[in-house]
Amino acid sequence: MLQALHVDSKAGFYFTQYCERSGNQLWENAIHFWFDLQQYHLLFYHDGLDPYRVQRQAQLLYSTYVCSDARCSVDVEEEVRRRVYACLTPPFEELFDAVEEYSLTLLMEPWTQLTTTDTLTHQGVCPLLYSPPRDAGYRLGSLLRHHVELQHFTSFLQHNKASVHLECWLDLEHFRRIPHKDTAVREDGSKLIKDKYLSRKYFFGPESPATREQQDDVMRLAGGWGRLLHERLCGPVLLEVQNIVRSHIESRWLPLFLATPAFTERQQPTVKVGLTLRSMKRTERWKQLEGTWMTSAGGILAFRQALLNPVTCHQFRRFVSLKGDFLENDVLFWLEVQRYKDLCHSHCDETVVQDKVSIIISCFIQSSIPPALQIDIPPEQAKNILEKRTELGPYIFREAQVQHTQTGY
DSSP letters of 255-310? Predict the structure, then answer.
């Protein structure tokens, strides 16, 4: 299921649409949460982490999916809500791990239904889910359901001076949703649309998304210029214009957007983190020893949970201690950084937090016992931690811990 989730955007959000059309609100909320959570995780892998952006995204996820009155609640237990809320400031990558695990459990039911309902259907679905062409099934509706990509698409259109097409479609959609009993609101909306779009400035002008024949068809539906100018817009005219604009977006601008390197990069299922030669060799050794190499977000989630469990952590430490180098130190460093994060959330005195930072640095990064660097991170990364200790704030060990998570699991 995780493999399918990672490529679902390339398959036209096939599984997402299945959840949305199921009528089960929890399934729909869970899959939307999972996709939004992946965007949150990516913030921690960008060069130059932006604490403000991370904080804002964490609060948005919490208010949208987790809190008791969330509009798209995934219905987690109250204890999970309290834990997430307590750790919202500062937010770290694993903040929503418990919510993600619960959401994936919820999604197992629709996934099982989708893959077992009918054998013939299943055989047709699997290639679509696992090896789709880049823009298979990708339509404007897919973007509208995933606001992160919609923001990227909006920026793309603005850069190409074509944002008016999307603005027109959205304004028409908004107008269609205004209740008919709100006569005054609909009247104002009708005038706005006619002035802004159904004039020679746009739809009937040289930059129109419609062909000459389509413009004539719309004019006939409206009953001529006189009725178009002086009467409220009727449903058939609105629908026809909206369909023409949508077709123009999907045939001209959407393929260009899907072909951009930035879009392709965002669809990659894994995040690559730069590794030193030594850690790359060690990673290869782990692959051989374990016989499998997890590359999904679910694997990282399971690995973090294993390290936080005293029993499995002890077993893993014994395992890596037999392999030499600094493997066990890497595990100990990861655990100490987790304790440092807990201190940040405990709202204790700042002096205590800084003492913890000093201890971690003196044990693993600037040790009095040769070699000074006792963990496997690049020397320039260690230097950056020492030089920018004050500037990095609570995220001082972020890059180092992310690298160890990616390398270790």
Answer: HHHHTSHHHHHHT-SS------HHHHHHHHHHHHHHS----SHHHHHHHHHHHHSH
Taking only the tens place, the pLDDT of each residue in 31-61 is 999 888 888 888 887 667 788 888 999 999 9
163 and 259 belong to one structural domain: yes
In a domain, 97, yes or no: yes
**Residue 220 three-state SS:** helix
- Amino acid sitting at position 354: Q
Q: In this structure, what token pair is assigned to residue 50?
A: 């932006």
Count how many domains the chain has: 3
Is pTM beyond 0.85? Reply is: no
The alpha-helical segments, DSSP class H, found in 8-132 are: 14-21, 25-42, 51-61, 78-86, 97-116, 119-130
Eight-state DSSP code of residue 361: I
d(CA 394, CA 68): 28
Bond into 394 cis (ω within 30)? no
Torsion of CA 43, 47, 52, 54, to 10 degrees: 10
Q: Cβ–Cβ contacts within 10 Å for residue 45, how many?
A: 15
